[in-house]
Design goal:
The chain has 480 residues and is of the alpha/beta class. It contains 17 helices and 18 strands. A four-stranded mixed beta sheet has the order 1-3-2-10, covered by helices on one side. It is elongated.
């Protein structure tokens, strides 16, 4: 399609129409492939985002719109007017009602929490249960971090007890006006100060239960208001933000370490895709990327599986001539390991496996009608089975060695094809469904579908015999 309608560039006055014509059938197909609780992400820039949103509103339904993410990458200092450094990612659900009914909440892992836990675990090996010293060491570590370090944003998690890392949060009633009852300090046994807004817990019994579970942080004495302990392990998830900050240049640099040179200039960032995939999928889901490019989606899925032990699977589709040399090759390399990578997991290899498949020659109706590039029996039978019955079967799995052209049985219905990939055969009587063949098919006492160039039997007779006749293109056979 693109070859017939190229070039498509900024000088082409029909470029928007061509792009819409290319995307329309693909989006319809992708919608059909989605599970009822599935979602689709489409990355796009300013050129077509407004057209894409209207098209997806029509195909997926406005009611199934989830969000429009803004992916902030990097600006360009040589821009004449405005430095545009962002793309968009439109997200639609197959059926938002079904998605909501599953009571699933999308939550993203907070960056930097794993580093905090690793640091505390290492300290615990030497300081054991000296929680005061552990807390002091943790605060000193935060102070040594750069503000760009992902853990720095969580520096309020600066206390440690036997349950783990926590921060002492507000214990007052939201909005004020909460209950005011007596609470006594566990060491001094004196009544502590009540927060201005009253206690968060409506009943004193609930407060006492929290104290018995060591979930309340008390000061050295009764002069300070107690606080509630909020543990790092309990707050690992956060709502997915609609703005994603990720410098796209970093993704390009990481790709050059995989291939030792600049293969594609603007690859997607596997860490961003990993975030989106982690939030919306379960560990055994399937992720389809119909415009695979450099194979970023597969990289993201493999990395996520490596991290959480999941078994997510991926399907990549790429029509460009670099599908094997770049798309699949990137997946091969990150599976085996990339020594030049700065990511330790990628250095040693993410593991996993995949199958690389290519499409055979297309069955183009014009070529068939002219008798050019006629497919072999099994290929045509597989194609007809799929188009007529929606059944996917590889040509190798079909029965092809028999007199009447029987090639498939569903358990309820037989399928036959009277065909040889020769024009002289198709133009002769041997290509027709005749009485002799029909009677043999009838003797099996099962409904049957017969594909042939012609039939010598009336439809009324075929109907009584439970035979459905499907004619191959007329020009292909007798009219050729």
């Amino acid at each position: 399609w693109l070859r017939k309608n190229s070039p498509v560039d900024g000088e082409d006055l029909e470029r928007h129409d061509k792009w819409l014509c290319m995307m329309w059938p693909r989006l319809h197909l992708l919608r059909e492939l989605l599970r009822d609780d599935g979602v689709i992400f489409v990355s796009i820039d300013d050129n077509e985002v407004h057209h894409l949103r209207m098209m997806m509103d029509e195909i997926f339904g406005e009611e199934n719109f989830v969000a429009c993410f803004v992916w902030e990458g990097s600006g360009k200092n040589d821009a004449r007017f405005v430095s545009v450094g962002h793309d968009y990612v439109l997200c639609f659900a197959r059926d938002l009602t079904t998605l909501k009914s599953n009571n699933h909440r999308w939550r993203a892992r907070k960056e930097g929490l794993a580093e905090i836990q690793t640091f505390v675990d290492r300290l615990t090996e030497t300081h054991n249960s000296d929680f005061v010293n552990l807390s002091d060491k943790l605060r000193a570590w935060y102070s040594s971090l750069s503000k760009n370090h992902p853990s720095w944003a969580h520096r309020h998690y600066n206390n440690v007890d036997e349950k783990g890392v926590y921060f002492a949060g507000d214990i007052s009633w939201p909005g004020g006006g909460g209950p005011r009852y007596k609470v006594f300090h566990p060491i001094t046994k004196q009544e502590v100060k009540v927060p201005k807004g009253g206690w968060r817990f409506a009943k004193q019994e609930t407060m006492l239960k929290a104290m018995s579970e060591d979930r309340i942080h008390f000061g050295e004495n009764e002069d300070s208001v107690p606080k509630i302990k909020r543990y790092l392990n309990d707050t690992r998830g956060q709502v997915l933000a609609s703005v994603i900050y990720k410098d796209r240049r970093a993704a390009h640099q990481r790709l050059t370490r995989v291939f030792d040179n600049a293969i594609l200039q603007y690859p997607k960032d596997e860490t961003v895709l990993q975030l989106l995939i982690e939030v919306v999928t379960s560990p055994s889901d399937i992720i389809l990327d119909s415009f695979a490019g450099s194979g970023t989606t597969a990289h993201a899925v493999l990395a996520l599986n490596k991290e959480d032990g999941g078994n997510r699977r991926f399907i990549l589709v790429e029509c460009e001539d670099y599908a094997d040399s770049i798309t699949a090759e990137r997946v091969r390399r990150v599976i085996r390991g990339v020594p030049a990578s700065k990511n330790k997991s990628v250095q040693i290899g993410l593991g996993g496996s995949f199958a690389y498949c290519t499409l055979g020659a297309p069955l183009e109706i014009d070529s068939l009608l002219r008798g050019e590039r006629l497919p072999d029996f099994a290929t045509l039978a597989s194609y007809l089975l799929h188009t007529a019955a929606g059944i996917a079967a590889s040509p190798q799995s079909l029965t092809t060695d028999n007199v009447d052209g029987f090639f498939y049985f569903t358990g309820e219905r037989d399928y036959y094809l009277i065909y040889e990939p020769r024009l002289d055969f198709l133009r002769g009587g041997a290509a027709a469904l005749n009485l002799e063949r029909a009677e043999r098919i009838r003797e099996k006492s099962r409904p049957a579908v017969v594909f042939a160039a012609a039939t010598y039997i009336s439809q009324s007779v075929l109907s009584r015999w439970q035979i459905t006749f499907c004619q191959l293109p007329y020009e292909l056979g007798f009219g050729g």
